[in-house]
Amino acid sequence: MTDLILIEAIKQDDNGAFEELFNRHYKPLVAYINTFTNDFQLSEDIVQQTFITIWTQRKKLPFIKSIKNYLHTVSYNAFIDHYNKSKRTDSFFEDLKEKALRDSIDDDSELIERRIAKLINIVNSLPPRCKEILQLNKIEGLKYAEIAKKLDISVKTVESQMRIAFQKIREGFEDDPSFLILLINMSYLKDNENQQFEN
């Protein structure tokens, strides 16, 4: 069965065809993406996400002349998306660290490193939806209304989840008021969100 026939079968919800397509192209795709990531586990994650996307969007798949080229394109775009998100996340925490070092010149650098690690742990410990909303707002830069539309939820739900995130961060740094003030003054907790954090 050719790749094109497999794609047409996948559009008709054929699980067997999807499994066959996966078995044919998974390893070559991982090898291809690994040339960019140099991280085999990450490459596997990206390629797996590629096939998940194909299956979930199977009804909307375009006419494909070359499945190999199509899979390469989708996988590469997934890699770029992951890279950009990782870069924004790393940049945020690096900016926070830089400001902490600049504004707390007398503090022990190891203490600041521990503070940053603590903040990351708090963010990572948030409920999945809460963490996702926080990241969309503070890392992706989306406004509450944009997040609500993207996730198909109400703005009030976004506000509620952000309030939970701020509360968790506040609780985590109750014994470190100087760093808490620094967080409030940063873009991480800006404008109206500052008021929500302090309430």
From TrEMBL:
Pfam families: Sigma70_r2, Sigma70_r4_2. The keyword Transcription regulation applies. NCBIfam families: Sig70_bacteroi1 (TIGR02985), sigma70-ECF (TIGR02937). Residues 118-168 form the RNA polymerase sigma factor 70 region 4 type domain. Belongs to the sigma-70 factor family. ECF subfamily. Keywords: Sigma factor, Transcription, Transcription regulation. CDD domains: Sigma70_r4. Residues 21-89 form the RNA polymerase sigma-70 region domain. SUPFAM superfamilies: Sigma2 domain of RNA polymerase sigma factors (SSF88946), Sigma3 and sigma4 domains of RNA polymerase sigma factors (SSF88659). This is RNA polymerase sigma-70 factor.
